[in-house]
TrEMBL record:
Protein's organism: Hymenobacter roseosalivarius DSM 11622
Transmembrane feature ranges: 83-105
GO MF terms held by the record: N-acylphosphatidylethanolamine-specific phospholipase D activity; zinc ion binding
Residue ranges of domain Metallo-beta-lactamase in the record: 98-292
Signal peptide positions (record): none
Identification of the protein by name: Metallo-beta-lactamase domain-containing protein
Length: 337
């Protein structure tokens, strides 16, 4: 018998897209839009058995992002944007401190290629922890426990079905779940609006949880500005839908790495050309790349993603201004025109 199709959302939150029924589920799996996407182990095996044509180039490429200390960023009250590596960002907006997708410590399977730009114990004063999805290079149990312990009043803004997973890591966390096109409840006096939006991706942490936690991206609206953090995503029509809903964006943080081999990665991640195309569709005024340089996740050489995106920008094929910071560099995003 075919699995039952249902639609899920948080009925306590505002859905901003008219007539949107919620996230489609087939059985207990979230769909990737309207379609169920289940990456297979056979693709991983094919990857392991396929010779990387850039193997020698990758081995010789020892490039890593520059790193500068940013410990003082966590005690400052100024608005700023700081890349902590991979997809982890500190973003202070209207005096509210946000932390995105923290992975702060090495694990058995993920070893940083460059140091963290601060001590893990420096990461305090966080108002909101925003988690785009449940993959281990974005949702790290040791990092969640550390940040929860050091920020007991922090609230977590997460996708549907993530609360149970998080409370298994840190039971005291205050978690609010949203589906796509839903606005989190930050209270009537908040200077921010934060909306959870689509991405083309999937979920799995173990053998039996395929697509049981949703994935997505975030839009922040503050003082007339729109700030977007993509999370992990393949290229797709959701970028046009987001632009149609919001109009041109001011700042867009886009993933540019982990795209080779294409037969394995193209439905989950964007290459630099696709990331630039997506930013152009979103009419982003400023583009900050992420998801490169920190971990070795794929077949492309370490320096290729940023170098390619810079070539795209230098060729005037990127609509917005490119900002490629050092890890830990403080960016004064509110001063960007």
């Amino acid at each position: 018998m075919a699995a039952r199709t249902t639609y899920r959302r948080n009925e306590n939150l505002k859905t901003i897209r008219p007539h949107y029924p919620g996230n489609k589920m087939i059985g207990n799996e979230f769909c990737n839009g309207d379609t169920l996407y289940e990456p297979s182990f056979s693709t991983v095996i094919r990857w392991q058995l396929t010779e990387n044509p850039q193997k020698a180039e990758k081995k010789a490429d020892t490039w890593t992002p520059a790193v500068v200390s940013c410990a003082e960023a966590f005690t400052s009250k100024e608005d700023m944007l700081v890349w902590l590596g991979h997809a982890t960002f500190l973003w202070r907006v209207a005096g509210v401190t946000l932390l995105f997708d923290p992975i702060l410590l090495d694990s058995r399977f993920l070893r940083r290629r460059h140091p963290l730009p601060c001590r893990p114990e420096d990461i305090t004063g966080i108002d909101y922890l925003l988690l785009s999805h449940g993959h281990r290079d974005h949702l790290d149990e040791a990092s969640i426990k550390l940040v929860a312990r050091q920020n007991p009043n922090m609230q977590v803004l997460a996708p549907l079905n993530m609360a149970k997973l998080l409370r298994g890591m840190a039971p005291s966390l205050q978690v609010q779940e949203a589906g796509w096109w839903q606005q989190y409840d930050l209270g009537g006096n908040s200077p921010l609006e934060i909306t959870y939006l689509p991405a083309a991706h999937w979920h799995r942490r173990g053998l039996l949880d395929m697509n049981q936690v949703l994935w997505g991206s975030f839009m922040l609206r503050v003082a007339g500005k729109l700030l977007y953090l993509c999370g992990d995503s393949g290229f797709g029509g959701h970028f046009e839908e987001i632009e149609k809903q919001f109009g041109p964006l001011d700042v867009c943080i886009m993933p540019i790495g982990a795209y080779k081999p294409a037969f394995m990665m193209q439905l989950s991640h964007m290459d630099p050309h696709e990331a630039a195309k997506a930013a152009n569709i979103l009419r982003a005024g400023h583009v900050v790349p992420m998801h490169y340089g920190t971990f070795d996740l794929s077949d492309e050489p370490a320096s290729e993603p940023l170098r390619t995106l810079q070539e795209v920008a230098n060729g005037q094929m990127l609509r917005g201004e490119l900002h490629a910071p050092a890890v830990g560099e403080v960016m004064r995003w509110s001063e960007w025109e």
